[in-house]
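Fig. S4 source data, part A: sequence.
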Amino acid sequence: MKLSVQIKYIWRVVAIFLLIAVLNGGQVCLAGQPGRTSPSEPFTSNANLNELEQMIGNARDIYEKTEVNRWKHLDKKVNSIVKVEQLLPGMTPEKDMPYYKNLMGVTSDLERAIASQDRINAMKSANKIMILGARLAEAHNPPVPINVAVIAYCGRKLEILSETENVLDLSDTVAKLHLSWQQLIPQVSAHGGLKEVKKFAEIMKRLESAKTSDEYGKLASSVVEEIEFIEKIFKK
């Protein structure tokens, strides 16, 4: 085959290749370049995040109701949590499966605590479900940073511990809360939450100098209340 014929043949092949690419919506993957994601490839759905947020919301409701000894209709809340958990194996990365397995055991603990109206253990279990749900939600790119959930968890844990009067555990939880808050400050500030940063810093200052269980309990409630305002900043 002459050189001129070879060149014409090559250009014809190239033209056919480009025509096929255009007809297929430009999904061409050249050497060293990534192609578009095929519709058949797995992707993270907002529905998965919505399910997890619903589970966290139900756990929060259970915590708040058991805290004031309101036990009616909590079985429905637990059933809703279980329904979401049944979906989790199909939408949980392998690395997060330990959170899922832990969640199963905590939910069983919650069911038993509600059945026996064990207030403290019901609060503990509901609090753990919230943080485990937040850990699982990380894989779905939630708008709220994980440290918001960690601080909320520590605040509720302080509320519970303040009733058991274990001051050593209280101070240890405050240290963990402080670390998470320091990491969160730049993100809150970047979202225009300078007022919230100032207010929460004052709560932390008072919390770190607390001496009695009663002081810890009152400030813990302030932590939980304020972190809910901060959470809304990231959802705007």
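Fig. S4 source data, part B ends here. The CA atoms of residues 19 and 213 lie 74 Å apart.
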